[in-house]
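[Solved] Which block belongs to which protein?

Original post:
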Amino acid sequence: MQVYLRHVHLEIAVDAPDHPTAWRLLDTLRAVLYSRGLKPTVAPFATSYSLNAYAGINSRGSETLRAKLPDGLRDGIQAKETKVQAWPTELFLTCHRGGPDLTEMITPEDFLSAVEACAIWQRIEDKHSAARVIRNALVKAPLMPDLSSSILHMWQALENLFGISSEITYRVSLLLAELCVPVAPRSTTYTTAKASYGDRSKIAHGSNSPVVDAQWQRAWGLLQNVSKAILHRGSIPSANDLTDELLNR
């Protein structure tokens, strides 16, 4: 914990009955925020008390050590009377942060909007297991040091949406283009999906071509738009529904 505590920039409080539930809620919030353009980051551990509460906990029980603490840390919980639990979660030292179009800043209004969107996403997950896979890809793909593995992980989630086994490049790209209509032009999504699926195929088939950050960003941008489109629609349409939607326009 000491390695990460020196670099903490944000602490998020989650009200939940247990750690697994809290972690799922935090993952959902991060996925929503990432889909809206926030740079991916690391959440290395969770604790039962705020950092602001347990900072200085080992010194407050001693009058000598307590006197050496800053004024704001001298009063609070003490080790002899309080049990602080901690759970390691993402013990990584690297994270793909994406391109210059992503941001490290978020307004209070945008944060509250993302919190509200989490409730919608959880309802979608309850109906569509594929939404859980998309969420997992959004949160975990940036933490994979190897670009190739990260791209494959994202495409595993995207392909899982439709369960297509033939003419994959064309059909998946077309369906993703229709799925993302609420958030992006069809032609843009189709072109991006087709190019990114080409990246995925080269990696999966052992191409010797080096994988570059631009390819990762292409898959990431596609995953972002898919997540936004799912939230906008409030569900995940089937391949047949999207085909009908496309033909009836």
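(Second protein starts here: sequence line, then its structure tokens.)
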Amino acid sequence: MNQPQTDVTGTGTDICAGNTGIGARWLNGAVASGSVAATLLAASAIVSALFEPAMVTVVAVVAVLAVGAGPRLRLGGPWTPADTVTACRLALIVVCICQIIHSPPGLNWSAVIIGALALALDGLDGFVARRTQVTEAGAGFDETVDALFILILGLALVPMWGWWTALPGMYYYAFRFITVLRPQWQQRLPFSQMRKVVAAAQGVLLITAASPLALAHEWVGFGAAGLALAALTWSFGRDIVWLERHAR
């Protein structure tokens, strides 16, 4: 009597394992094809348009998606799990910028929370990449989304503290433009933990500077924005000095 029960149980286990394998293969295929990333980005665009139905919303969504995801799409190739996390971060940034546009000046608490989630995912995509697959395309995608978010936050601060708050967001694009004119700046920089710390702190400082807390206490906003600019200026300046000293 026990043998038939063993057969039935074993068959059920095999079916479950087979279904799990099929589900895992389907999910992996959806991730690699970019379908999951495309779904996340499309959902963010739809949510933004529904909550803030205006032409400026459409323009902002298209611009952010084009700048953020365009370079990754041009490179092609399969998408990795880390790319999907980065796409989720870009989706949050799309929603965040719509909040910024329709609730100036600065960020309301909803935008602060969404921005904080996007910053948290910035650490997660690197963690996922190191444990799954690291690619040049993925690293470039992550860098592009990082720079775009800093630019958006910097521009959001202009009505509050002045044009100089946009400088942290412009440094990356200015540097990339100069590398075209001066190929010596295209060298790979040595690893620097301090560079990583400064880059990670930018989002935290700029969100703080644009938060309702900063509006209530001007010294918080001005100080956070000033510290972000000073730290990034030092970091870029140090790297430029190294590049010039090692120019070939």
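Accepted answer:
You had them paired correctly. Confirming on the second one: DSSP finds ten helices and no strands in the chain.
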